[in-house]
C-alpha cells in the first residue's frame, strides 16, 4: 500500500514550486524566459506523475525516478525561494531608514543575476533529461524492463528532520536505554521490580533473560506476535479478547459521524464484511470510520464503504498497518502532507498543536487564500480534520477548552513515517553530517548544548528549533545565512541580547525567544513576521522602534511602552491582526487617554488575554498619576476572556474595562485603589483574584451590582482568591433567600492575610456549592461553614477557633490545621466519619499530646504531624487507625517513642512512613531497617531524614 502514499509528496512539492514560479517576482527582470521554460517542465513533470498507473508505482525503478524528480523539484523550489528572498531584501532595504547598517547592496547586481540565470537553466536541463528518462520505465507508453521489487519495505519520500538526543525510552533504537532501565530498577535489594516491556526485539531477548536470572526481576512482555510470546514466555500467556462486533460497529459509526444512520439490507451486508476486516481491533475501527465520514447521502456512503471493503487486503503480517495506510491514502493531499510531517517528532512525544501548525505554514503546506481565514485558521481546520479521522489522540485542553497538545499512536506514527524520506527519518549526529545531508534538511529539531557549526551547512532550512537549558551568550553569526528560514524557536535558551543579524532573515514568520533584555533594533525589517513570543527582564524599558510596521503580526506576547517616537503604545494601532495573549508593561509612559486610544485595542477582536502593568511606585519617573484616564483609553475588545491589572495607581477603576465576556480576572497591587469595581454582574466570570489592594477598607453593594439583581451576582464564579487585603475591615453581603443564584457555582474560596477582617458575609457562608475553603493568616476571622453542604476540603492557618458547624459535614475528606493546636475544640471530629487526610501543624510548638478525638477517625488514610515540640510519645490509640496508609512525623524534636510494637502492627495498611528532623526518635530502639521490622512494613517504605524539609509544603493535592 505504501506505493500509493509516497507520490503525493513529490506532487505537493511540484505544486508549491509552480505557484512560486507563477508569481510576479519584480527582481527577475531579464529572467522571464528562463522562468517560463522552468515552469513548463515543472508542469509537464507534474502531469506525468499524476498519470502513472498504480501498478507501475510498485516498481522500484519508478520509485527511484520519482525520488530523483523530487530532488530536482526541491532544488528548483529553493532557487525560486532565494529569488523571492532577494526581491524582499531589496524592498526592505529600500524602505528602511537604517539601511546603511547592512553590508550588501539593495539592488541585484549583474553577477548575481547571471548566477541565478545559470542555475535556472541547469535545473531546467536536469528536469528535461529526467523527463526523457521516464520513457524506458513505461511512464510515457513503453513497457518497463525493470524487475519488480519483492520486498515489503515501505518507501519513504518527504525530507523533514533530524532529532538529536531526544530522551524517549521504549522504541527500536533504544535497546541500551531499556537495559539500563532494567538494571537500575534492580538496585534496591528490598524491592523486587515488576517491569512491563511493550515491544521486544531479538537483540533484547538474551540480555533480558540473563538479567532476569541474575537479579530476580519480573518482566511482562506485551506483543502482537505469537512468535515473540512463544520465545519469551515462561508461563502461559494472557491473550486479550477482541472487541465484540457490536462495539466495533458502534465505534466505527461514531468515528464516521453516522450514529443516526438507519440500517438497510445493503448496509447490513456491508457491515458484516466490514466487521470481518476490522477483526475486533478498536484502532482499526476508529481510523476506518474517520476515513469514510458520513456526509448525509446514504447511497454515496454505502458505495464508499463497498469500495473500502474491497481495498482492504487479506490478513497478512502487517495487516493492521496496511489498513491504516489505506485510510491515510484516502486523505486529501494537503491533509496527507500535514499528517506525514507529524512523524518528525519521536513516538509518544506530546506535540504542541500551535507549534505544529506554524511549522506546516513554514514548510509551505498551507498557502494563503482569499477571504477572512488566515493560514493559521486553515491549519486549525487541517488539524481538526486529522483529529476527526482518529489520527491524533490523548489531546490536552486549556482552561478555555482549546486543544493545546496531542499524541499519535505508535502504529499511526509508523504510517506517517512511511511517507517520509529514509534520508531524514533517522536520528542524526551533526558531527557525522556531510554536505548532501545538510542541504536536504528542511526541518531541524536540535537538542544540544550548543549550536554545532555544521548547522551552517543546512542552508535550506525552513524550521529550526534549538532546545538548550543553559545560558547562551549569543546566537552564532551563521544564523544569518539561513535565508530560507521561516520558523526559529530558541525559547528554551536564555540570552541577554539578540544579535542584529537575525533581522536579515526576511522570510521569518515565527520567532520564539526565551527571556531577553533587549530585542534587536531593526526588528521591523522582519516584514513577514507573524508570531513573536518572548519574555522581558524587569529592567527592559523599551521595545525596538516602529513595531507597527510588522502588519502581519498575529502573536505578540509582550509590548513595553516607551515615550520616544516609534516606541509609543500607538505602534499597536497598525497591528490589526493581533490575537491570543498580550502583556502591556511600563504603562506609566503613556501620557494621556488619547495616546492610549491610539493602540486601538478595542478593535482587536481576536485578543483573548490582556495584562495591563504599571511599574511599582519606586520605579516611576514622575509622581503624577493619570492611570485612570490611560486605562479608559486601553478599552479591551468585547470578546476578551482574561484580564490582569497590575500596579494600577488610580483611586478607582473604570467600569467599562471589565467586559461582559471575561472568564478570568486578576487585580494585583492596585494599592491606591479605594473601592472595588462592580464585578458581580459579569455573567461569564469563573475565576477572580484580588490581591494587595491596601486602600480598600470595606466592601459593599457596589461590588455586586445588586441594583440589577434579576439573575444574581457571580453566577458562574468557581474560584475566588482574596489575598493581602491588610486594611479590609468590613465585608457586607446579606442574603435573605438562600436559594438565590448568588455565588451559585463557587467551588473554591481562598482568603490570605486579611488581618482586620472579623467576619465573612453570610452570602459567602451560605454558599452551598463550595467544596474547598482555604483560610490563612486571618487571626480575627470567625468562620461559619454550617451551610456549605458540599465542603470536602478545609485548610486553616492561624485562626483562633475552628470553624463553626464543622460537625455537620460528614462528607469532609481533607483537613489541614496550622495554629495553636492545644487551644482548639476538637469535639466536631467525632462526627467526621469520611475524613481520609489530616495534616496538623502546631504553630506555637506547645502541644504536649495529640487531640484524643483523632482516634475516632477510623477512615483516615494520611496523617501528618508537624512541629509538635512538646510531644514525647505517640499514643497507644493510634492502633485504631487501621486504614492508615501514610504517616509523616516532621520536626517533633522531643519525640522519643512510637506506640508499642503491638499497636504499630495493627496498622497493616501502612505503606509509607517518614520521619523528618526528629532527632530523638529511634524506631524500636534501632534506626531504619531494624525499625522497619518493628513497624511490620518493608524497609524501603520507611524513611528517616534529619533534614528540615517538610512534606506538608509538597502536598499539592491540598
TrEMBL record:
Example GO biological process: response to other organism
SUPFAM superfamilies per record: L domain-like, P-loop containing nucleoside triphosphate hydrolases
Record keywords: ATP-binding, Leucine-rich repeat, Nucleotide-binding, Plant defense, Repeat
Pfam families: LRR_R13L1-DRL21, NB-ARC, Rx_N, WHD_DRP
Keyword flag ATP-binding: yes
Chain ranges of the NB-ARC domain: 201-259
Domain R13L1/DRL21-like LRR repeat region: 569-691, 852-911
Gene3D superfamilies: 1.20.5.4130, Helical domain of apoptotic protease-activating factors, Ribonuclease Inhibitor, Winged helix-like DNA-binding domain superfamily/Winged helix DNA-binding domain
Keyword Nuclease: no
Protein name: Rx N-terminal domain-containing protein
Species name: Cucumis sativus (Cucumber)
